[in-house]
Every structure is written in C-alpha cells, then in structure tokens.
Design goal:
This protein has 134 residues and is α+β, with helices and mostly antiparallel strands. 16% of the residues lie in helices and 57% in strands. An 8-stranded antiparallel beta barrel has the order 1-2-3-4-5-7-8-9.
Length: 134
C-alpha cells in the first residue's frame, strides 16, 4: 500500500515539475498556405495564452484557457479547457470544446502533439517543437 501511495505522489510531483518548467513563453516558426507565421504559447500558473502571429508581426488568432497536466500510461498529456478564442485579445468568445494533447519536455524543447484527440475538418494532426522565448 505504501508503494502505491509513494508512486502516486511521484506522478503528481512530476506533473507539478512539468508545469513549473513550462512557465513562460514558447514559440515555433511554421509555414502554411498563407505563408510564414509564428505560434506562441505562454503558460502562467495553470493558465495559457496561444497566439498565431503572421510574417508582419500581426496577431491573427488568440486562444486562452486553463491547462491540466496528467500522466496517462507512458504519455504526458495536457488538457486545455475553459477555452476562449478569437482574432484578438478583445474579441474572445467561449469555445464549447476541450483539447487533449500529448507532450514531451526534452533538452529545453516543448514538443506538443495536437489534434490527435479527434478528427477536425480544418485542423490536421501535427507535432510542433516549441523553444523557450527570451
């Protein structure tokens, strides 16, 4: 019984450590149908802000919400919920959906596998390697 309790405490500690490591802004540069853009995700406590910034440094999409990190088998997962999204910080509207992603923190990179939790018409599954922004 003691071993089960100790293992449960270690898993909780690992998730808390990951949340502490994620604090701050992370970015990845990408290219799509509309050209080059940057994705940014910033974590502050258990909240997050995601932005897409075009090549002219204009924000074209913003989403915010809360995050919960869990260990599910061999995978680290992030549950993004309480989501609000829009074209700017002032145009956010509630989104009736959660997002569940697999992630890995390794060598200063934040790898995030998105859109594997369900099929989405306009968003294909992807894995992005975010770097910590200065």
């Amino acid at each position: 019984m003691f071993l089960i309790l100790a293992a449960a405490m270690l898993v909780g500690t690992a998730r808390a450590d990951d949340l502490a490591t994620l604090q701050g802004k992370w970015t990845v540069k990408k290219t799509g149908d509309r050209g080059a853009f940057t994705q940014q995700i910033e974590f502050k406590d258990k909240k997050w802000v995601f932005k897409i910034v075009n090549a002219e440094d204009a924000v074209v999409f913003v989403a915010t919400g809360e995050v919960e990190l869990k260990k599910q088998g061999a995978f680290n997962t992030a549950r993004f919920f309480g989501i609000k999204a829009g074209r700017s910080d002032t145009e956010l509207e509630p989104v009736d959906e959660e997002r569940n992603s697999v992630y890995l923190l390794d060598s200063g990179q934040f790898y995030l596998a998105s859109n594997l939790d369900k099929a989405r018409e306009r968003e294909k599954p992807s894995v992005d390697a975010y770097s910590k922004a200065n």
